[in-house]
Amino acid sequence: MLRGAAAATVTATAAGGLAASLPHPTAHAAPADRARPAADGARPYRWRSVAMGGTGFVPGILFHPTVRGLLYARTDIGGAYRWDDRAARWTALTDHIGWDDWNLLGVEAIAVDPARPDRLYLAVGTYAQPWASNGAVLRSDDRGTGWQRADLPVKLGANEDGRGTGERLLVDPRDGDTLWLGTRHDGLWRSTDAGAGWERDTSFPAEPSAGGQGVTVLAAAGRTVYAGWGDGGGTEPALYRTTASGGWEPVPGQPIGPATAVPQRVAHAHGALYVTYANAPGPGGQTDGAVHRLDVATGTWRDVTPHRPGGDDTFGYAGLAVSPNRPGTVVVSTNNRWGRVDTLYRSTDGGATWTSLRERAVLDVSETPYLTWGEEEPKFGWWIQALAMDPFDDRHVLYGTGATIYGTHDLTHWAPRIRGLEEASVRKLVSPPTGRAHLLSALGDIGGFHHDTLTASPARGFYRNPVFGTATGLDLAARRPSYVVRAGWGDRGNGAFSRDGGRTWTPFASQPPGAKDAPGPIAVTADAGALIWSLVHWDGTPHPGWRSDDDGAHWTEIPTFPAGATPLADPIDPRVVYAYDTARGTVAVSHDAGRTFVTAADGLPAGDREYQLAATPGRTGDLWLSAKDGGLLRSTDGGRVFVRDEGIAASHTLGFGKAAPGSHHPAVYHVARLAGSGRTAVYRSDDGGRTWTRINDDAHQWGWIGQTITGDPRRYGRVYLGTNGRGVQYGDPVR
């Protein structure tokens, strides 16, 4: 069981120059002063999520069948949640997962034990690729407050195709200590000791495919277990069941064909087994599908598809929920229906007739205004694979989308049920020193937000004009902080500027050739006089850098800018711009506001695009280089000489905030691993990096957190941390 721990003060000693650890230094420097202990003891931090309102794909929602108000949700990259019915919000259950185990923050499946309400299981593992770690099963006896972990010898794929099928984990109805786990490439697995140990069930008759889906769903009907199989290609059985003798068999009479190639969900009530199917695992790529019903007692199958896909109306069927109290009440969802928009179909007569719920739906998104997607009316949703019906109230229905969870209690009025669940992948954070907003963000998939309060989703929604999918750059002018620029994959252009601190935006009047396919990082000089835009294709291919001195109306190529480098403006001198070329391990500097660049230092860490260069606010030429396992290096002479801090074993991202009382240096916030420590954690330094205090704890780790961090320049101690799947976390010292 993992518990929180108070912050701890540790000392990192800086010593030695480049010559000690890096090849071909530009110059040598005297060793830095040895670090001294911190002046006072550490204080614990309180951590909370910045409210956005989901913003990510929710592929699974599960009500407990015997406890009113108890339900769980899983996300593809952001962990699992438990619903707090009294507070009407979600509680994160997997924030304890740390840096080394980041692959376990994606949840492949959830299982509950009907007879033991406090027992909860999660199958975790984000990627099944060769470079990813193996999956694991987490088990809890207190509804996810504490966990035990069983590592698996196989990989899971919570963020891969097929993540919306399921659940792939099931407690056996005949024995509460027996569990079944369906994997994508390694067949069916079984545990007979409540999830502590696992072995492959070699009696399962279907053979997995290396590129397939394997077991897509597990469900119980009475004392029988059913398993959906996604590798049959529409020509082989796709549904299996346990036999009285303990083996497995294909379910007799089942439909076989392209529309039923991949079972999505299976549910049973009142002697009827329902199955939703599609011709692809989803969430994308589905163009055909069906819904079938099996009378378990007679073995009779019936096609109860609400509406047949075809012509220009292509989609699959995915979500499925049945009422245990009202025979014949069932709800299914379409998925990947882009032409006529996805919907839910509801039947009260076992699928003989259906009613679409979308047409009469009234959507209230006032709590998460971004769900209007920049238009007058909100959308019913897309990628609807998660669907759940309250076992105590068949008019209480929830469904997940690519961005949120909608819920209703009357089948007509729907509103997001997403409070507390934050799933954004964060690319860049900026905390302005003045203005209404304390936080500006650049996000994957959803552009970013202007937050003037941290506890509510912004009333203006996400950035508009243009609307971005994934952002690639965000910066403000240090001496004119109301001026902000951003770049990304947009609907009408790939860059924009703001004169009111990021509240409203104006698209660039033009953009460089290639920006549409390669909108990389962007910087603005301290006085807002020039923009420097580095173009980088989505696959990492670098392009030339470009400069504009008229808010993006005209652009001039910079021949001396290192292609693919990340530009960084000096916070004081508007003539100075830096560029860190991670491919060659060099820092180039411009002294004419980005018109020309010359190499200032070489021999620096190279080969990783995630290396980051940061500049100390209020100082010119004071640079910090986070080079991952290459450590932390610092230059105080404008990038000519860098000195490595030997007390830092790995440095991932670094930012600055308001100085501590009595300190003359901004507070430094750092995601790092200190020398002699096996843990990557979040640290703060109040003395310019001489000593570091850990400010997160074992209960607050959030997997991979190496992308972006910044302090608040107006509030000492406050820090904003970008995660890859848990949105923006912000922390304050406990007073």
TrEMBL record:
CDD domains: Sialidase_non-viral
Signal peptide: 1-29
Organism the protein comes from: Streptomyces taklimakanensis
Keyword hit for Mitochondrion: no
UniProt similarity note: Belongs to the glycosyl hydrolase 74 family.
Official protein name in the record: 1,4-beta-glucanase
Lineage of origin: Bacteria, Bacillati, Actinomycetota, Actinomycetes, Kitasatosporales
Molecular function terms from GO: hydrolase activity, acting on glycosyl bonds
One annotated GO biological process: polysaccharide catabolic process
Protein keywords: Carbohydrate metabolism, Glycosidase, Hydrolase, Polysaccharide degradation, Signal
Cited PANTHER family: OLIGOXYLOGLUCAN-REDUCING END-SPECIFIC XYLOGLUCANASE-RELATED, XYLOGLUCANASE (EUROFUNG)
